[in-house]
Amino acid sequence: MIVDCAAYEGGCRVADVGLDQVGEWTKRDGAFVWLGLFEPTEDELRVVQGQLGLHDLAIEDAHQAHQRPKLEEYGDGFFLVLRTARWNDEKKRVERGETHLFVGPRYVVSIRHGDTASYSAVRTRCQATPHHLSLGPGFVLYAIVDFVVDNYFPVVGSIEDRVETLEKQIFGERAHQDTTQRIYEIKSLLISVKRSISPLVDVCNRLTRWDRHQVVPAEVRPYLRDVYDHVVRINETVDALRELLSSALEANLSLISIRQNDIMKKLASWAGILAVPTLLVGIWG
Hints:
Blueprint: E1 2-9, E2 12-16, H1 22-26, E3 31-38, H2 42-52, H3 56-64, E4 70-74, E5 77-88, E6 93-104, E7 107-114, H4 120-127, H5 130-133, H6 137-150, H7 152-172, H8 177-208, H9 221-284
Parallel strand pairs: 3-7
Antiparallel strand pairs: 1-2, 1-3, 4-5, 5-6, 6-7
């Protein structure tokens, strides 16, 4: 499905563009095209490929989805895969998706899969700052990546709240075996976030050092470095939470073991108390 497709010149939106006109607009000096797709069909992707000359392997990845985050160079452009995550406050759960980006000197193609938030808000913000949008596809790339990364902060924040609640249950109440199951559920979620965010550290680092000025101009690199800092912070927070959960699991198991030992001691004490009258009755009848 085509969400939006427009041509930009001098940082301003100048025309709505059909798929069959994308290639024509990319040949105009000072213009670039931003095409947004949501779970496109193979035929739609082939039309885009014919208009922009995209690589077969990248088109295949974009159609199949379920890719790991990566950055691959093809000719004068590149193909970027992002795994997205956002916290749904109403349903109290994490919604996951995937975004693929084709970025060239005069085009940006964003392809969404799954429960990925719409980039209409990103497009609106970019169009509201023509002096930034005039930097070309490189700034659009930054805006989308920044939007994806920022959506991870509420996700990590919700996990931190759940970990804090677990700590109170472990040390403030009686340790319970159900707590162990909740710890494993949170660790599973953290592993999923780790697999999505960890590869972005290398991807963002490569983008900040990109020497292809026609795609990522020098003016955009400070913005990408800011995104890189955010990715590193999220990655470090996830690592810290995983270590904290491992310690919480050990503490919970230890408290359960201590509780079981106390119960056994009480049972043994009562058995000893009851053994005395039993012995007396057995001797004297």
